[in-house]
Amino acid sequence: MRVEEILDCGAVRCMRTGEVCVEVDRVRVVYSVNVNPGILMEITLEGNNYSSTCRIIYDMRLDKVVDISCVGFKEKRVKITLEECFKRKGILYAR
Q1: DSSP bridge pairs for 93
Q2: What is the full per-residue pLDDT of the chain (95 aa) written as tens digits?
Q3: What is the CB-side half-sphere exposure of residue 48 using CA atoms within 13 A?
Q4: pTM above the 0.90 mark?
Q5: How far apart are CA 84 and CA 78, in angstroms?
């Protein structure tokens, strides 16, 4: 699965510039995306307009997101928004 496919749903959108926009409490946080490929693909989102960083671990073997962590501006709300997005798509790993 491509990164654009993973990060495109509901309040989380991929923009034409390659950035990701997450809408939280009527505030749009724009992130630049860095990807470390491998069996466990690490997707790092660095906030451009707010001080926020998120790390998403995607397991290629399971085709599931296994971990999400966020630090900074509205970290809990951003994490919940990402989790809801991945649940809706059926790619959030349930332990």
Answers
A1: none
A2: 788 888 888 889 999 898 999 999 999 999 999 999 999 999 999 999 999 999 999 999 999 999 999 999 999 999 999 999 999 999 999 76
A3: 13
A4: yes
A5: 10
